Amino acid sequence: MPDTWPTARELMTPNPPTLSTEAPLSRALGLMRSEGVHEVPILRNGRLVGLMSFDAIARRTNLALSTKVEHVMTLPPVVTPDTAYPELAEQLLTSGLRGLPVVGKKGELIGTVSRSDLIRVLPDLPMIPNHRVEEVASPVGLVLKEHDACGILFPEVRLLEQHPVPVTDKKGRVVGAVGLADLGHVLWRPRPPGKGDAKAAGRFTDIAVGTIMHNPALTVERGTFIADAARAMTRAKVSSVFLVENDRPTGVLSQADLLGLAVGRGEASRLKPADVYVQVHGLRASGDPEILTEIDRLVGKSLGHISRYAAPTLLSINVTPHSARTGDATVHIRLQTDRGIFYASATGWNFFASITSSLDEIQAQVRRSHDAARGKVRGRRRSEKDLLIEPGAPVDPEIEEKIRAATGADDSEV
Questions:
Q1: Is pLDDT larger for residue 403 or for residue 185?
Q2: How many C-beta neighbours within 10 Å does residue 36 have?
Q3: Class of domain 8-115
């Protein structure tokens, strides 16, 4: 097993498919489908100028497929062949992308590295603790029924960007899953000339979820180690696995959850509270700057206290709404630190209060863990001190004889 982190050079796919800035969205979608990728590097005169992502297209279903990719592409973070695994994981999580371009010394594109590339080698990395899936999995924020209309998916595009959602039968058993790729396969089908995309999208909203889902969904039971789950995800070529009890979904383990275990574990990496990677899932108003500012304030204050006792690396906040009318929601928070993983949850009508109480609980857990560890150290030091022989204390004759034999000392020297 490796004792050093693999780099982009070892993990990347060389010579990836690319498009020019003049290519239409229809060509980008076709390339993504045929290659099974979510991002395509965009080149101008052979140089990397942007990235076309499936997520960007999914958020703007009103775009004509003749639109040039240069009008929709984004400027991605880039990595070099020497970029190590922890930084690759952090860049992928921070950007929200599934793949990153790898550039050479002259800025030329030499490959791409994806989340799947990192997950493939994760089971063989001794630097990442082999937790059980229930310790790392996120709550299921949305569960669909086979007969639900696809229109329910449009407000949930942000959630689909994170992981597919489970689809259940009438008895609540997982029978499939729906992700962004499933959405794209039917939303942007080739159509006869003169048929507008917007009109087709309107018809699509009435289609039953069960007709577009992929099945079977990959599932695991409680107690499964994450290394085994990662291997299963790689074999099945999927981005997530659902944690089930009696065939009913209780959690979802995504590639992002697994990569979060590597954040902050690189060489010379000692993250400050301001550098901690924070994930917020399930918050439909996540684009509201005032809400994000308040969450940032609460998180920053709490992490400042927690950093006195442990080094935080990743904080995940999952909001599960119960009712659109009352605003009731359950907040689940998971914090990864150099001392382990800590959890807390709260339910109420005010999710700010729920976030605050959950963070306070995690802060208390971290402090108790720190105090317990210090107690063990103090106890060990006392035990060692008790073994020291004070001057003038009687010495065991056999020990004294062995000391003389080993050192060659006579009676007068001892």
A1: 185
A2: 9
A3: alpha beta
**DSSP one-letter code for 59:** T
* Of 28, 15, 296, 410, the residue nearest 188 (C-alpha): 28
Task: Give the angle 182-186-188 at the CA atoms, nearest 5°.
Answer: 115
Q: How many CA atoms lie within 13 A of 100 on its CB side?
A: 26
Residue ranges of the domains in the chain?
A: 8-115, 128-265, 270-406
Do 8-115 and 128-265 come out as alike in CATH topology? yes
- Closest C-alpha among 351, 359, 158 to residue 273: 359
The per-residue pLDDT of the chain, averaged, comes to: 80
pLDDT at residue number 377:
60
Token representation of residue 182: 């499933």
Q: How far apart are the first and last CA of the chain?
A: 51
How confident is the model over 245-256, as a mean pLDDT? 91
Class of domain 270-406: alpha beta
Confidence of residue 270 (pLDDT cuts 50, 70, 90): very low
Domain 128-265 is of which CATH architecture? Roll (3.10)
Helix (H/G/I), strand (E/B), else coil: 283: coil
**pLDDT reading at 285 higher than 50:** no
Residues in the chain: 414
Burial string for 247-274 (b: 16+ CB within 10 Å, else e) reads eebebbbbbbbbbbbbbbbbeeeebebe
The tens digit of pLDDT for each residue in 63-101 reads: 788 899 999 898 888 899 999 999 999 899 888 888 999
